[in-house]
Amino acid sequence: VHLVESGGGLVQTGGSLTLSCAASESIALFTMGWYRQAPGKEREFVAHITNLRNTDYLPSVRGRFTISRNNTEKLMFLQMNSLQPEDTAVYYCFINKGERYWGQGTQVTVSS
Question: What span, in angstroms and rounded, lies between the C-alpha atoms of 91 and 45?
């Protein structure tokens, strides 16, 4: 499975961004989600959405970020609101399809 993220960029504190993850194959039956990695830190879980659309979030983003999916278009999204400088990271999407596949990442930078 080939995953391509888009939608990252530079935004001011309190701003919003929507990340997209486009898959090369069907996603309907599989859990997908997002991780992020800030400079000098380990990659951390951000959110996931199951095939039944159950969701889970990193506590620090719950209420600010919303994960969703469009199975027909083979897309997954991460709507990010009230962004803070500590949200600055490279964001990676993944899909659990037998094994875990990753995208190449998209940079999100939140200026203070």
Answer: 10
15-70 confidence digits (pLDDT tens): 999 999 999 999 999 999 999 999 999 999 999 999 999 999 999 999 999 999 99
**What's the longest Cα–Cα distance across the chain?**
40
